[in-house]
Amino acid sequence: MMTEDLKEELVRLRRDIHMHPELGFQEHRTAGLVEGYLRELGIRTWRIGATGVVGEIDNGGERRIALRADMDALPIQEENPVPYASRNPGVMHACGHDAHTAMLLVAAKVLSGMEFEGKLRFIFQPAEEGLNGALEMIKGGALEGVDAIVGLHVWSQLPTGTFAIGDGPVMAAVDRFRISVRGNGGHGASPHETRDPVVCASHIVMALQTIVARNVDPLKSAVVTVGRISGGTAFNVIPDVVEMEGTVRTFEDEVHELVERRVKEIAGEVSSGLGCRAEVEYEHLNRATVNDPRLATIAREVASKIGRVTEEQRNMGGEDFSEYARLVPGVFAFLGVRNEEKGIVHPHHSPRFDVDEEALPLGVQFEVSMALRLLEEGF
Ligand code: NI
Fold first, then answer.
1. What's the pLDDT tens digit per position in 195-211?
2. Ligand 1 centroid to 131 CA: how many Å?
3. How far is the CA of 44 from the centre of ligand 1 (A)?
4. What is the enclosing helix (H) or strand (E) of 322?
């Protein structure tokens, strides 16, 4: 399926996109490249928003299967000493979305030269990183008529040649909370004349850790992290207010609801117990990415003909593929791109992140085989 020429083209595409990274909703060059490539193959394309691109091969038939790639980069200065390093200062493909885009383009090329019955839709979405580009694509009709959707993410924790495909939730629901603790400031030498929000906020940080330790079922997963805390201006002044921000990660709805409720209760009740007042803002950023078990089984079968397969790869990161998989059956697979010998070991979102390009043809094979298999057999 993958000739040497095609493998070279795949690497060339990936490096081209890698050298020209663009942030979410600004993927103008990348979207143009995607559109031009698909059109050259004779694939009909259309835009959603300024930078979303959809392509479709329509060979009649009942079924329509979608494959999805994301195209955006991150606000990171690349530190890799490679000839294809980012030429865009402060912007880098540090999550592998360059690889996702290149793999799906080449998969479209392979599929466009094959005979099959059915419709294949290629979704190239903008702004996966924190901006929920998937929602824009869905609002623009990207999922209309789609029976199932397949997503693939390169993964730095897994060695090249390994696929990880789990059942059920594989990436977490992501929430953000902000807590403002209000007291009454005053002189650091006269705490009895104040209501100290620093002490109160400290108790809240500690008490929030009891949610995972004491409230969530030990057999379930959750994370509560306070990532930012700020308050005060001088060593001898008790401030009026302390602010903190943090994130909650969960897989299941019931755990999600429990943790949200406890964050609010703890912030409110610890504060009132200590004479302060808490204001809590709580936002849901991503839903959990949940694999359809039937599709995941098929995906594992398909992947086992290409490489090694494990089910063990769930992580607490967020992914807006969740928005598609909520509406139609979906499967989100991880493709290993780690290679210790080549020094390709750095985690996602690191300025040294890179992918082992030997893995890319395996990803293309997976996408092509999944598309054909789902069109032929349904699920
Ligand atoms: Ni990513």
1. 999 999 999 999 999 99
2. 12
3. 27
4. helix 321-327
